[in-house]
Amino acid sequence: MTTGPIPNSTAxxxxxxxxxxxxxxxxxxxxxxxxxxxxxxxxxxxxxxRAYFALRCWQLAAPERGEQLGAPTAAFLGxxxxxxxxxxxxxxTLRQRAVCACHGDTWRLENIEICLGxxxxxxxxxxxxxxxxxxxxx
Length: 138
Ligand SMILES: [Zn+2]
Ligand SMILES: [Zn+2]
Hints:
138 residues, 4 helices, two-stranded antiparallel sheet, single chain, 5 strands, alpha+beta, three-stranded antiparallel beta sheet
């Protein structure tokens, strides 16, 4: 088991709403989609960097959770995906490397997971949960 807080050398980046640890991740997604919609669907209100990685992993895991995403959220996710470069951008992202917060090992993003509580990268070797009640996707 992990004891104490996991050190995190690189702070998560991306849409600040999605990085707000005080709310569950699905609430953050809904709030980000709302802010984007109410702000005239500006590309500036979309998501990039680590927040996008988390968002995309969360989206891809939705069927596993038996979840149907609502129309505003689906529109937001579609726009964010396009702005991120679609399948090309996503493919390039998956080949980038990141350091896991649990051991400090370097992994390709396609082989790493992310905690939807704190948005830290975690490798499969993590023994035990990261944040209480948070889903780990990737
Ligand atoms: Zn690790
Ligand atoms: Zn966490």
